[in-house]
Inverse folding.
């Protein structure tokens, strides 16, 4: 069974793309076949791996669900030159898909329907990287997912972003019959030496308890990864950041 | 100064705890959300895969004294008793192969039983003209607890080593325990006399973090 994991937060710069790319590669390293889909118009999932952004996500969102369309979209999937790890890139055209989806009156389940073509034994996991906004695509992407991971910096405005995405999820469940759910909130850019970070993490834990996943600490090696076109498991496999993301992979594998 | 919790949009100065609040109860969750946490989690079931793959072989009628001697030597060397037993068996089998140790089987007086057959050889029954006699009442056999318990040893040996023991036992038509007893005794004698040397080697099975004080 294919599990669809969305990495979502309406706030920007919280580590969504880093988390999506690293989680996808971590799962692939454990022998799971993973397709990373970049629904962010910035197309940075491909950039982070030194691969060319393309309108693969746009094609997926705008084309019908037929055999010929599926074959075309399969052709837009590129290999990341890593075992078990493929990417459907996005680019700025992904933003145009939103207008088309709204004008065509696509249902909330549209993204799930179009993703179902990949929900077969070919892939164990679909990891969806989302845009830092709230619109037609993002809601449909959330609705399409089985698990949602919400990365957030341990700062007050990060908590505000978490609140917004959780409210969206509540609404999707209560009004749109969404069957998926929150898997966890992932504190990112965490620094134990910063009192504000500690206090915010405590506040998050006091509200969400064990839904707060083990934090990812701020690390220079994580910032370096895109410059080398590598994930943390390749760039600094012995680093604390690699261990922390590895733990996240373990937790997801147990889900 | 009270802080504003941007998550719940409330002003709070309450200390943190690890339970979920009412706010969290309204969030749609996956079935496995929060399962990673160690809070309230049952201890993981011990994985017995290795033990299942490496079941010990049990050999009966190996004396307790012999077993204790092997155990004492293992403790002295800081290795497992299985390794000492394996070393002795491998050494003994090598000696047999190189004809430096000769195993000869003979009939065991404790293993003898009486029989009336075959008639031609044993002449167990035949017609006679003897005086009348009584058949004595059967005595109830009392087996002491010490005799009821067969002394036995269990060693995790590689399959090949066990097969070697089985091969010798089949060739000589003796029980496995006899072969094991013989080889263990032979190994102990060789170790005591200095003919056999056992030198444990360090093997890293766990890593630890080293503090760099420089």
């Amino acid at each position: 069974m294919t599990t669809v994991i969305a990495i979502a937060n309406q706030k920007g710069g919280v580590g969504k793309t880093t988390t999506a790319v690293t989680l996808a590669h971590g799962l692939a390293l454990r022998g799971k076949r993973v397709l990373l889909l970049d629904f962010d118009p910035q197309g940075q999932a491909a950039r982070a791996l030194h691969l060319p952004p393309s309108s693969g996500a746009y094609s997926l969102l705008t084309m019908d669900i037929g055999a010929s369309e599926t074959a075309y979209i399969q052709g837009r999937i590129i290999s990341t030159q890593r075992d078990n790890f493929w990417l459907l890139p996005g680019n700025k055209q992904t933003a145009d898909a939103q207008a088309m989806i709204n004008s065509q009156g696509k249902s909330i389940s549209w993204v799930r329907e179009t993703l179902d073509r990949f929900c077969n034994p070919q892939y164990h996991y679909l990891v969806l990287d989302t845009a830092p906004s709230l619109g037609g695509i993002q809601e449909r992407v959330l609705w399409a997912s089985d698990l949602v991971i919400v990365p957030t910096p341990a700062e007050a405005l990060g908590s505000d972003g978490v609140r917004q995405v959780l409210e969206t999820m509540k609404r999707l469940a209560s009004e749109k019959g969404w069957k998926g759910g929150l898997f966890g909130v992932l504190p990112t850019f965490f620094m134990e030496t910063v009192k504000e970070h500690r206090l915010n993490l405590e506040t998050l834990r006091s509200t969400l308890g064990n839904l707060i996943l083990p934090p990812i600490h701020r690390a220079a090696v994580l910032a370096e990864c895109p410059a080398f076109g590598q994930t943390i498991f390749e760039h600094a496999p012995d680093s604390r950041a690699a261990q922390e993301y590895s733990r996240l992979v373990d937790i997801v594998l147990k889900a | 100064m009270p802080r504003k919790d941007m998550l719940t949009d409330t002003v709070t100065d309450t200390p943190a705890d690890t339970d979920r609040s009412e706010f969290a109860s309204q969030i749609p969750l996956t079935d496995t959300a929060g399962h990673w946490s160690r809070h309230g989690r049952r201890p993981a079931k011990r994985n017995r895969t290795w033990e299942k793959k490496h079941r010990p072989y049990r050999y009966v009628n190996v004396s307790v004294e012999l077993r204790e001697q092997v155990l004492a030597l293992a403790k002295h060397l800081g290795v497992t008793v299985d390794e000492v037993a394996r070393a002795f068996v491998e050494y003994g089998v090598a000696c047999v192969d190189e004809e430096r140790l000769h195993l000869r089987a003979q009939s065991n007086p404790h293993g003898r039983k009486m029989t009336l057959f075959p008639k031609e050889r044993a002449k167990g029954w035949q017609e006679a003209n003897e005086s009348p006699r009584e058949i004595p009442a059967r005595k109830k056999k009392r087996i002491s607890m010490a005799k009821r318990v067969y002394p036995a040893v269990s060693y995790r040996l590689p399959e090949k080593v066990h097969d070697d023991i089985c091969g010798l036992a089949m060739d000589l038509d003796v029980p496995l325990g006899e072969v094991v007893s013989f080889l263990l005794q032979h190994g102990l004698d060789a170790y005591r006399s200095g003919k056999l040397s056992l030198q444990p080697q360090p093997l890293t099975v766990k890593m630890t973090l080293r503090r760099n004080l420089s």
